[in-house]
Amino acid sequence: MLEHFPRPPEDNGRGVHWSHSPYFWGKDNWSFWKEQIQAMKLKWIKVLDDGGGSAVGLVKRLVDLKVMPVVRFYKEEPNPGHISGREAETAKRYAELGAVYFETNNEPDLDLEWRDRQRPANWLDIVVENFIIEADMIREMGGYLLFPAFGPGGRGNPFKLIVDRGRQDLLDGNCCLAIHNYCLGRPLDYPNDAINTQGVPLTQAEWEELGGMWAWEMGVETVNQKRRELANPKANIMEDSTCFRAYEYFDALVNEAVGHSIPIFTTEGGYNVGQRAGTTFGDDPRYPKPTPEWTGRLTEEMFKYIQEKAPAYYFACMPWLIAVGRIGVWGEGFENQGPWFTNHFDQQFGLNGELPVVPKLKALASKVRQDGPMPEVWQKFYAGPDLTGRKFDDRFKYLEPQVVLEPVADPSQPHWRLIEARWADEQEAQGKAYVFVKALDEKGQPVEGAIFQADRGDAIDRVETKGPLDEYWGNYLMTGLLGTYQVSMAQDNLPSDKLTNVGLGNEVSPGQGVPTAFFLTFQKMAGGAAPASIAPAAAKPAPAQPPAAPETPPTPPVGPRATTPADAAAVASELKDALVAASRQYIIPVNRNSDLYQYAQANKLGEFLSAEFPLRHQEVEYRAQVFEKGIVYVKADGSGGLTHIEL
User: Fold this and answer.
1) Are strands 485-489 and 451-455 parallel, antiparallel or unpaired?
2) Residue 238 confidence (pLDDT)
3) Residues with Cβ < 8 Å from 294, sequence gap 6 or more?
4) Measuring CA to CA, which residue among 586, 560, 544, 435 is closest to residue 499?
5) Beta bridge partners of 8
6) pLDDT recorded at residue 619
7) What pLDDT is attached to residue 414?
8) φ and ψ at 403, to 5 degrees?
């Protein structure tokens, strides 16, 4: 009953709940997050989506890493009611990528998940009825729906109700179950641990080691008094499941209803800094609030258990939470809950932007629980050739259709080789819907007037590269969507590499004319030789992004102007040379891919008025940049996150 459910290759059951936002997931710093996922050997990640594909960029990147996403369609107060065709179509889109697990509801046993926070007396019947509707919709789209997780300690057997409604087929290999088994400071074997069953006393050394007064909120004698009073020799998981082992309780309910297990996933839960028994103030005084170090040790033990001892039906554990501010979303309350990457506890516990759980998981060896079965589509996610030796934007793989290289048939003969290709999304392109092309000769020097072409199926448009003032970039205006153009060189009658499926559109909206841009560098190859290193175009510094030819006549500048001519221009014999020479003194180099620039655009601070500059203030190093409406700055080491002052 479990064998056919898809799993990632070399599955160890190890995962994490990603951002608590459907929109912010680390897109602007993906290389960092990719490195963390791989270093911690994560195989499952819970993500949020707004129901329309807002997480598609993240899901594609996870699939590319062979990490299995579990997608929750996020909606405030989701009860009563069920998903619509919009979410179903989005589920189909994800299932076609091999992301087949979905959540559509959340903790329906709690009032706050109901409209106006009013949970009716027959709430469980309503939840079951809507689950059946949604499970059929998701299954039709190629996915598996997870029955919604109850809040910690939730009760009731919804699986019997599903069977009573004649829908046991959903539980016979066609759906799964989500749980939120927050551990609340209790050990992995709770409720059968010695503290709960025997009242084993706490020592002064243990009290101090586990955090002292911050962790216990009372002295040793008071803790031991509570341990004696609350000891329960008859404790069992069916009566007290507010702990890690809640999966045993819910599996028992499923077996009671249908006589077999279904896949169970932790989609929230685990150990959180300062959290015990549901509150940071501590409802169960017998256990300490976990410090960052204790949280890391407990989480490490939890994942050891999962990959070595957990039952087969317990597929994966995705505890709360990878990051908040570090991933680009504001949420002070969430920051306090101990995300793995945070500066919230730095000063108090001597940390530096991450909890001890991070290095512990990086050091924890991965033990394979089961190798797949991997979704077939994962094996052919990337449709292009090997790109070794070329500088290609990794995001080409995530566009629809994928933008791929078509290399020449015989690279041993003279040809034009595409050595570098970069994509600029709608923020980076800033309305410039162009293909920019630069051509280099055999020695790596830029060529003015080299012809390149854009084949759009019914016609071929040819354009020339420009001169030094434009950094030798030629530009071609795009009007077609992704999949429209095939771009190559058409110079010297030589064969050329081609970049296919070029066009307008982004990852979330591939079928819409979102203005984006492509930057392609071709080099002329003599044949049978590796490309020469790219030499600078001239002595002047190259800007981070080449300028585009204006679509409309330029208007006179209204800002400040230079009052004296450039000295280098005075000796130039031609006007063109004079203009080039004079311009060098007034170019403001700017990197539109930088975190400062993108922060400014996201916060509508206007255009840049300066390049990035360093600042040292009170022994702290900063990076900063001036924009029309503010100055954006960040500590040089990245701690504390980006912020700004208004002008």
Assistant:
1) antiparallel
2) 95
3) 210, 211, 215, 288
4) 435
5) none
6) 76
7) 97
8) -90, 115
CB 48 within 8 A of CB 21: yes
Total length of the chain: 647
- Contact, 455 vs 485, CB < 8 A? yes
392 Cβ neighbours under 8 A, 6+ residues apart: 405, 420, 421
Region of 438 (left: φ > 0; alpha: ψ -120 to 50; beta: rest) is beta
3-state secondary structure (DSSP) of residue 136: helix
User: Which residue's structure tokens are 């509570």?
Assistant: 226
CA 113 to chain centre: 26
Check if the beta carbon of residue 263 is closer than 8 Å to that of residue 298: no
Q: What are the tokens at 474?
A: 């030629």
Q: Tokens 């071609």 map to which residue?
A: 476
pLDDT at 602: 86
What is the pLDDT at residue 559?
Answer: 35
Q: Measure the CA–CA gap between 129 and 212, rounded to whole angstroms.
A: 49
Which regions of the chain are under pLDDT 50?
279-281, 529-530, 532-572, 584-586
Start-to-end Cα distance in the chain: 63
Enumerate residues 6+ apart whose C-beta is below 8 A from 130: 79, 80, 81, 82, 105
Q: Are 520 and 420 in contact (CB under 8 A)?
A: yes
**3-class DSSP state for residue 604?**
coil
Q: Is the peptide bond before 446 cis (omega within 30 degrees of 0)?
A: no
Report field, pTM of the whole predicted structure over 0.90: no
Kindly report, residue by residue over 129-183, the tens digit of the pLDDT. 999 999 999 999 999 999 999 976 556 799 999 999 999 999 999 999 999 999 9
What is the C-alpha radius of gyration for the chain, rounded to an integer number of angstroms? 29
Q: CA triplet 571, 575, 580: central angle to 5 degrees?
A: 80
Other Cβ atoms closer than 10 A to 240: 18
Q: What is the secondary structure of 563-579 as a DSSP string?
A: SS--HHHHT-SSHHHHH
Closest to 127 (Cα-Cα) out of 141, 113, 142, 144: 113
> What confidence score (pLDDT) does residue 154 get?
55
Other beta carbons within 10 Å of 368 = 12
Please list the residues that pair with 389 across neighbouring strands. none
Strands 15-17 and 44-49: parallel
How many helices (DSSP H) and strands (DSSP E) are in the chain? 18, 22
- What per-residue confidence (pLDDT) applies to 601? 86
Coil, helix or strand at residue 636: coil
Q: Report d(CA 321, CA 178) in Å as an integer.
A: 16
User: Tokens 């962790």 label which residue?
Assistant: 215
Inter-residue contact 489 to 522 (CB < 8 Å)? yes
User: The tokens of 596 are what?
Assistant: 């400062």
Joined tokens for residue 252: 């028992």
Count of other CB atoms within 10 angstroms of residue 401: 14
